[in-house]
Design brief:
Elements lengths: L1 H26 L3 H55 L2 H6 L2 H43 L1 H5 L8 H34 L1 H6 L3 H27 L1 H25 L5 H42 L21 E9 L5 E10 L4 E5 L6 H6 L9 E6 L2 E2 L5 H6 L1 E5 L9 H6 L7 H10 L3 H6 L17 H15 L3 E5 L7 H15 L3 E5 L11 E6 L2 E6 L1 H6 L4 H9 L1
Parallel strand pairs: 3-8, 3-9, 6-7, 7-8
Antiparallel strand pairs: 1-2, 1-4, 4-5, 9-10
Helix pairs in contact: 1-2, 1-4, 1-10, 2-4, 2-10, 4-6, 4-10, 6-8, 6-10, 9-10, 14-16, 16-17
The chain binds adenosine-5'-diphosphate (ADP).
């Protein structure tokens, strides 16, 4: 950048020299031989300067891009790591589209801001300094007129203060659009079946229009910078022309030095303009940085306590003692619940939806922490255990199966990243998934589409059961694992689940009471409170109880 700035500033000397020599030529009689000397003297200088300028330009461009891109990749990695470490509650609060747009849009804004800052700020400021020095050297009186230009920075500073707020607003809105797009495409089936295309188009159309007005507010501020610089540039040139003519007429300066100052102005003008608008870019960049650091700096609440214990060789006893829980938005979900899931047994949670069953099992792996009471595993408060050891003792199978766009083998393998292929196949066999997997053209190497598209609900669920089998964790949480299935798939999945729950502490949430008859213990939960408990037969005997009522309704 130093080389580039110096070679650019050197052009003022070249022009000054050329003008003075040309002036001398026209006054001299033996013009031809002089012209030859002139050309021989000027050409190597000119070629040398352009070569230096070109090469240094190329090198600085590559380097500054590499620096900015590396920095941005580092930011993305840090942000991704922080995003994964944040509390589960944060994911519920921030729509995933908004989070995604921080990785795509905001990161782009930062990368272009960094590239421009590196190139323009360092290179242009050096060029400005060197050029002004060269101009002062050649004709200081005339160059001082240039200071008019510097006045331009005052309004630019005022404008830039407002810019950052506007930029943040625009970027946040892009996050909203990303969420809406994700939601709309994700709901393609619903949209088509209900003929919602035009209403969706109107909804997103509104967002796109909203973007115009937000962006225009930003552009209006940005657009003020250029005309201010333009007008001041015009004034500076006018001043040089008038004062320069005066200097030449009274022979206090050479024509070459005036040429040098004018060349200097031509060099300075785009640089100063770039510096003026650079501030816009920096403001946008800073707004994006603020949004990104809000993720990176977010300190999770659910972390290991100092001296947290590792849960080693757990039996898998799970005990809830006087557990109360209220969601961050104030929704009370559980009040004073006490219940036990004994090691190796199956414990069922039943009751009307919205009662708090899912909330209860989310407390076991500490997706949320209790507000009152305690959840204990093997008699130890889960908050005193390391998250890593606690969570590796738990396998979760839920109604909405999560499958990644990876091969079937990899999808099962997420249960245990070190499992060999044979173990994966064994797990698939136990989950009654082996046959349908081998019937697929690429078998275990079949790459699944987004969310496992192409597989039936029952097949997806059996893959997730295979994953849980592979995990081989002592505590198994089943959140309505069969509720989305038809009778035949349900039967198969139910068998796979029975296989899976053998010898494990299983806490199962079931909507269909018929699926939990065999459970060792059933807890009936309503409105966040425990209303009944006992094995199936005992509960049926309480004729007026909620369990018997629900069962009658289901039959
Ligand atoms: P169930 O599993 O028995 O159907 P849930 O545990 O899902 O019940 O819900 C219990 C209560 O907590 C309900 O009132 C529900 O609206 C509320 N709830 C569930 N998840 C959240 C959340 N992420 N934020 C706020 N409230 C929630």
């Amino acid at each position: 950048m130093i080389a580039l700035a110096a070679s650019t500033a050197a052009y003022t000397f070249v022009v000054g020299y050329i003008v003075d020599q040309a002036n001398g030529l026209s006054e001299n009689a033996s013009a031809v031989s002089n012209a030859k000397t002139y050309a021989v003297a000027i050409l190597p200088i000119l070629l040398g300067i352009t070569a230096l300028s070109g090469l240094s330009n190329y090198a600085q461009r590559l380097l500054s891009n590499a620096i900015a891109l590396n920095a941005v990749a580092k930011l993305q990695k840090q942000m991704f790591a922080s995003a994964h470490n944040r509390d589960f509650a944060s994911f519920a609060r921030e729509p995933s589209g908004s989070l995604i747009s921080k990785f795509t849009n905001d990161v782009n804004v930062i990368s272009s801001a960094m590239i421009r800052t590196l190139t323009n700020l360092v290179k242009d400021i050096l060029t400005v300094i060197f050029t002004i020095a060269a101009m002062l050297w050649q004709n200081w009186q005339l160059s001082l007129i240039m200071t008019v230009f510097l006045l331009a920075f005052w309004p630019i500073i005022v404008i830039s203060k407002r810019l950052r707020g506007n930029a943040k607003d625009v970027q946040a809105h892009i996050g909203t659009i990303t969420s809406e797009l994700k939601e709309s495409f994700g709901a393609a089936r619903m949209v088509k079946a209900y003929g919602l295309e035009s209403s969706e188009q109107a909804r997103l159309g509104g967002s796109f229009d909203e973007r115009i007005s937000r962006y225009m507010r930003l552009v209006k501020e940005q657009a003020r910078v250029d005309p201010i610089l333009e007008i001041l540039g015009g004034l500076a040139i006018a001043g040089v022309v008038i004062f320069g003519a005066y200097q030449v007429s009274n022979e206090s300066a050479s024509a070459g030095s005036i040429g040098a100052v004018l060349t200097g102005i031509l060099i300075l003008s785009p640089r100063l303009r770039a510096l003026g608008t650079l501030n816009n870019v920096i403001q946008e960049g800073l707004a994006a940085v603020t949004r990104i650091f809000s993720v990176i700096d977010e300190a999770p609440n659910i972390v290991d306590v100092p001296n947290a214990r590792a849960l080693s060789a757990p039996n898998g006893d799970v005990e809830f003692t006087n557990v109360s829980f209220t969601y961050g938005d104030g929704t009370p979900a559980l009040t004073q619940i006490s219940l036990t899931a004994k090691a190796g047994q199956t414990t069922a949670l039943v009751g009307p939806s919205g009662g708090g069953k899912s909330t209860l099992i989310n407390l076991v792996p500490r997706l949320y922490d209790v507000n009152g009471g305690a959840v204990r595993v093997d008699g130890i408060d889960v908050r005193e255990l390391t998250l890593e050891s606690l969570r590796s003792a738990i396998a979760l199978v839920s109604q909405d199966v999560t499958l990644f766009s990876a091969s079937i083998a990899d999808n099962i393998g997420f249960g245990d990243m070190n499992a060999p292929r044979e173990a994966i196949i064994e797990a698939a066999k136990s989950a009654d998934a082996h046959d349908f997997i081998t019937a697929l053209p690429q078998g275990y190497d079949t790459v699944l589409g987004e969310d496992g598209s192409g597989l039936s609900g029952g097949q997806k669920q059996r893959l997730s059961i295979a994953r849980a089998i592979l995990r081989d964790a002592p505590i198994l949480l089943l959140d309505e694992a069969t509720s989305a299935l038809d009778a035949r798939s349900e039967d198969k999945v139910q068998k796979a689940l029975e296989q899976l729950s053998k010898g494990r502490t299983t806490i199962v949430i079931a909507h269909k009471l018929s699926t939990v008859q065999k459970a060792d213990m059933i807890y009936v939960i309503e409105d966040g409170a425990l209303v009944q408990s006992g094995p199936h037969k005992a509960l049926l005997k309480e004729k007026k109880g909620l369990y018997a009522t629900l069962r009658n309704l289901q039959h």
